[in-house]
Amino acid sequence: MSERSGGPSRRPSRPQRQHPPARRQGPRRPPEDDPARIAAWDTLKAIRERDAYANLVLPKLLRERRIGGRDAALATELAYGAARAQGLLDEIIAACSDRPLSEIDGPFLDAMRLGAYQLLRTRIPAHAAVASTVDLVRAVHGSGPAGFVNAVLRRVGEQDEQAWVKQLAPEDPVGRLAFTNAHPKWIAQAFADALGDKGDELDAALRADDARPAVHLAARPGEISSEELAAIVGGDVAPYSPYGVHLEPGAGDPGDLEPVRERLAAVQDEGSQLCALALTRAELAGRDERWLDLCAGPGGKAALLAALARLSGATVDAVEKAPHRADLVRKSTTGLDITVHVADGRDSGLPEGGFDRVLVDAPCTGLGALRRRPEARWRRRPDDVADLTKLQRELLTAALKLVRPGGVVAYVVCSPHLRESIGVTSDIVRKGLAEAVDTRDLFPGVPHLGDGPHVQLWPHRHGTDAMFCQVLRRL
Ligand SMILES: C[S@@+](CC[C@H](N)C(=O)[O-])C[C@H]1O[C@@H](n2cnc3c(N)ncnc32)[C@H](O)[C@@H]1O
């Protein structure tokens, strides 16, 4: 799909011009018998108006309004689904409206997205999808705007998603797959570049990125085995991480699980577990006593490293620039021996050459974890990449000063974007600061790791986030 501003390639004839009359006076309330759609509508508004995260806003709304059971499930499906598909829905809405999207009031556009999502991507009958959405708009904004939303949604419902895609998708292969799978084109292009594929595998990657991910847990090493954890929570032992357990999608709030509350386990993608483990698995000659996590917040990998360090007799330091995220590191490592420093990893004040293993889990675009944040793919911009790669290079360079000669650094980003991944590490190797370790050897049993020496995980290949990991040895 083209960027949000990009228009569809071929538009159908426009509906008759609709002129919504002025709003009625006085505040109104949406119908109280539809709490799920109201919560979904309010979530879309929060995303649009204040750049909120759907997966923070919606659970809070559901709790505050005591919405549970089927209503909560419907609200989640509609809010997350409409946020995820926003760009695709917008192209279709634009093709059905006599006004450009930029001239449609935000709340009406949110309602159209909500309605269009129900029409195109759920089994809700078309008349119910339109009527329930229009009722919300009528109750709050009056019958004029409701008529406008009704007219647009009726046009949207004239054909199914496949027919709209056929009609509106661009011709070029990557643009077409991006459109079909509701991704911005620049992100689909970044995936294609990393995969070296513009066809079937790109389609599979985008499709997997569009699906709600399963929740993964990490059993705390030395406290509980993954088999015990799986038996307690009713999950499955993970295929690759010796500490991983997979839960069924939609299995409820994992924070409510007893082992998680008791800190015997934490929510952590299996790919993240594998990247932290790769640091500990790299061969090391000589001293192996001091480990460092240079970008530690909120502390998922730091907790795994600190638990493993306790078993092997090493100590762990963690650096985090943001004080509130350093607090999260302290919280997630409660009961473990770790020293948390609030500092900039580029100038931490820690001793040069003082560490044997260093993790640089660098700030990144997060293009590898888009499936976790429904709205994220439409919020990220291509321009974000340049600023981040500068910071990533600086952090990796600092890490290579903090590790002793012969020591290892694991450079990790949750992004397959080539500029953030091999663009950063190959530059460091070219400058002679470090040598690349064949990182595939540190992911035993994990298939489809390509030609190395780096590892790029993928949701469609491994069921994990698209994590990149390259272990480097300081020369
Ligand atoms: C990808 S996250 C790390 C995730 C973490 N390792 C985990 O597994 O939970 C990157 C972290 O780096 C922090 N950060 C950003 N710039 C930094 C800097 N210059 N020095 C240290 N930390 C930084 C961010 O605040 C963020 O918490």
Automatic annotation (TrEMBL):
Residues 191-475 form the SAM-dependent MTase RsmB/NOP-type domain. InterPro entries: MeTrfase_RsmB-F_NOP2_cat (IPR049560), MeTrfase_RsmB-F_NOP2_dom (IPR001678), NusB-like_sf (IPR035926), NusB_RsmB_TIM44 (IPR006027), RCMT (IPR023267), RsmB/NOL1/NOP2-like_CS (IPR018314), SAM-dependent_MTases_sf (IPR029063). Residues 11-27 have a biased composition (Basic residues). GO terms for molecular function: RNA binding; RNA methyltransferase activity. Its EC number is 2.1.1.176. Signal peptide: none annotated. S-adenosyl-L-methionine binds at residues 295-301, 320, 344, 361. The active site is at residue 414. Belongs to the class I-like SAM-binding methyltransferase superfamily. RsmB/NOP family. Keywords: Methyltransferase, RNA-binding, S-adenosyl-L-methionine, Transferase. Residues 1-10 have a biased composition (Low complexity). May act as RNA methyltransferase. Residues 1-36 are annotated as: Disordered. The keyword ATP-binding does not apply. This is 16S rRNA (Cytosine967-C5)-methyltransferase. It comes from Kutzneria kofuensis.
